[in-house]
Amino acid sequence: MTQIRRGALAALSIAAALAVPAAANAHRQWLLPSATVLSGNDPWITVDAAVSNDLFYFDHVPMRLDGISVIAPDGSKGEIKNGATGKYRSTFDVQLSQPGTYKITNVSDGVGASYKQGGEQKRWRGSAADLATAIPKDATDVKVTENSRRLEVFATRGSPTKEALKITGKGLELEPVTHPNDLVASEPATFKLVIDGKPAANVEVEVVAGGNRYRGSTTELKLKTDAQGAFTVKWPEAGMYWLEASVRGGQSSIPGAERSAAYVTTLEVLPD
Amino acid sequence: MRLPIYTAAFTGLMASPALAADLELSLEIPRLTVAEYHRPYVAVWIENPDKTAVKTLAVWYDVKLKNQEGQKWLKDMRQWWRRAGRDMSLPADGISAATRAPGRHQVVFKGGASPLGNLPAGQYNLVVEAAREVGGVEVLRAPFQWPPKARAVSSAKGSSELGAMSVTVKP
User: Does B133 contact chain A (CB < 8 Å)?
Assistant: First the structure.
């Protein structure tokens, strides 16, 4: 978390303090692949990575690339090439040297704490390992939140495959029913949200279409997962879509901590 | 028990002329007045009425480029790529071929012979999809019945990347 959006953190903390729902803090993190459906024996994709309000325009802060990893179709670890960070966006390439589906992820885990010391309100962010030493012994009103956030995008050379789509069982994840690189405007797509590998029921899912700069309004769908964690998206039209869901509460690995887990992906829906 | 055996044998005999039936595609690639013209990539395939692909008959693309670089744009024939192309290994004998120039093209697919092979009896569409570099994409469909009892023609007409298309089946 701290590595991705330092600039947005202050805003996030304030939002949390004011008990504003997470959705109201509008800065969105996103990865945007140049293509998701590819042919040929040596295709590459280039990916933009940024944080902004409007999708998919880089006008706020770049995403840091430290946390990016690539999972190749055979499940092995791939690599990013030509990574660079500019004023508004980062960019990197991925060579699709294997046939099948690649998954590119940015997973961040962090801990946030608020406490009072001598009547003064204080905040801290860091890793779970540093938590014990970070909070002073005389601190009161200690409130700890464990945050996990997973961003993913997918790209497929040739036939879509499923090995790279396997969930890790940690945090909030998307378990595809419809393959994420097999999306067309005329066919609804179904996905499942899972938290620590179990169905995430009754979770709000926000789906936002990119390209709002050239339209009068923003296309946003609000969906909810069913008891099995499943939800179905009826695409209004072809295009790039940003999808986010987050879960508050539940089991934290840190005793007494509140838990917050988020999932974000960008999906390309092709015309028929 | 004799009668069913006789019937089966009789049907078998009847099937042979059907296997020899022809599927003939006549396709016009329009001459376009554009600043930068590239011949379109074209895929020809047979689909069921529910649009699932049965078999690919032809893929015209830049087969001669080094390192198979011409395959990079096969996915631009989006419908074919999703329904058939992405699961195929190209180049494929008798299926992949060079792109074709503007004009009228006649291609005959013979029943029982590759790539048409032995198509089960039924109602189908012959589908043609064209995708052009710095141009657009167009898909045309023409229905046909297989095996044909008599000569039958169906046609479709494109408006951008393809011109007139007709499919003739004959026993």
Answer: no
Domain membership of residue A216 as a residue range:
6-269
Question: ipTM score of the complex?
Answer: 0.86
B87: closest chain A residue by CA: A159
Q: Give strand pairing partners of B157.
A: B164
Distance CA A217, CA B93 (A): 51
Cα A94 off chain centre by:
19
Cβ atoms within 10 Å of B125's Cβ, excluding its own? 20
CA distance B88 to chain A (A): 8
> How confident is residue B8, by pLDDT bands cut at 50, 70 and 90?
very low
Residues 111-170 of A with CB under 8 A from B: 158-160
Question: What domain count does chain A have?
Answer: 1
- Secondary structure (3-state) at A78: strand
pTM, 2 dp: 0.87
Whether A206 and A246 have beta carbons less than 8 Å apart is answered as: no
How much is the pLDDT for A191?
98
**Would you say B79 and B129 are in contact if contact means Cβ atoms under 8 Å apart?**
yes
Min Cα–Cα distance to chain B from A170, Å: 32
In a domain, residue A43? The reply is yes
A93 touches chain B (CB under 8 A): no
CA gap A150, A107 in Å, rounded: 4
A271 touching B, CB under 8 A? yes
CA dist B67 and A161 (Å) reads 24
pLDDT of residue A252: 82
- A100 domain residue, yes or no: yes
Q: Is residue A1 part of a domain?
A: no
CB contact (8 A) between residue A39 and residue B69: no
CA A156 to chain B, closest CA, distance in angstroms equals: 10
- Residue B19's pLDDT is 56
Mean pLDDT (10-residue bins), chain A, 272 residues: 41 35 64 98 97 94 96 97 98 98 95 91 90 90 93 98 96 97 98 96 97 90 98 97 92 85 98 92
Which pair of structure tokens corresponds to residue A54? 């409007």
CB distance from A42 to chain B under 8 Å? yes
Q: Which residues pair with A135 in a beta bridge?
A: none
